[in-house]
């Protein structure tokens, strides 16, 4: 099973650690693509900081993030699970998992990244700022770049197991699973139910996805189909509605009334 997560917009910057080594990251076939994105981002932020702030959607009070990007090649790194933060990652709380769940996190979790395409929790990366909807001079659309680059690496990562896709819509555009994987693709949506009405609420969505992934890692089950995943989540106490299979996979709606 591969659980594909979105990144967090905010990141914790390590104060020390060895600099980035792209060739040491997982999925080494992505190294050339990662080099191009890194070079384009660093060049923009180093040579055109005002333009960089606009490209990155930053205010004048956030120009320190432009300077941080300009020095990414020399910046200290830490494990990805210590870099990404925010509601989903707070709820997942990887640091407090049991030893067995931590081992499963290392092999089953993958995090979508605008800068690196995809990383595993043990990959050492610096804190950076680059949104999935950005268009970078010398590179073009970040989402378009990764759509052209990620396919083989992601298919290899999924292997013969189930893909549990928890990405937000922005990052789902980086890679669409091919139709032959559809029987083994489960996309998960979280719905907040109040007085019989269901709707998507960002905070509930992120927090619930974090708790859901934590529960799956602690349980250790390895479902091979979306239907089997839905049964496992039901056994773990979640309310799950299973959609009809499509050429894109099967949507599972996890219904919650509170975080």
Describe the structure.
The chain has one domain (2-256). It is built from 11 helices and 12 strands. The relative contact order is 0.17. It has 259 residues and is of the alpha/beta class. Helix 1 crosses helix 2.
Any key phrases for this structure?
globular; 259 residues; two-stranded antiparallel sheet; 8-stranded mixed beta sheet; alpha/beta; YaaA; Peroxide stress protein YaaA; single chain; 11 helices
Note the total helix count: 11
Shape: globular
From N to C, what is the helix and strand string?
EHHHEHHHEEEEEHHEHEEHHEE
Sheet with the most strands? Answer: 8 strands, mixed
Cα separation of the termini: 25 Å
Mean pLDDT, to the nearest integer, reads 95
Helix content: 25-40%
- In the predicted model, the low-confidence regions spanning at least 5 consecutive residues are none
Tally of extended strands?
12
Q: What is the number of domains?
A: 1
Beta-sheet strand percentage? 15-25%
Q: Structural class given helices, strands, pairing?
A: alpha/beta
C-alpha-based Rg, rounded: 18 Å
Organism: Nocardioides humilatus
Protein name: Peroxide stress protein YaaA
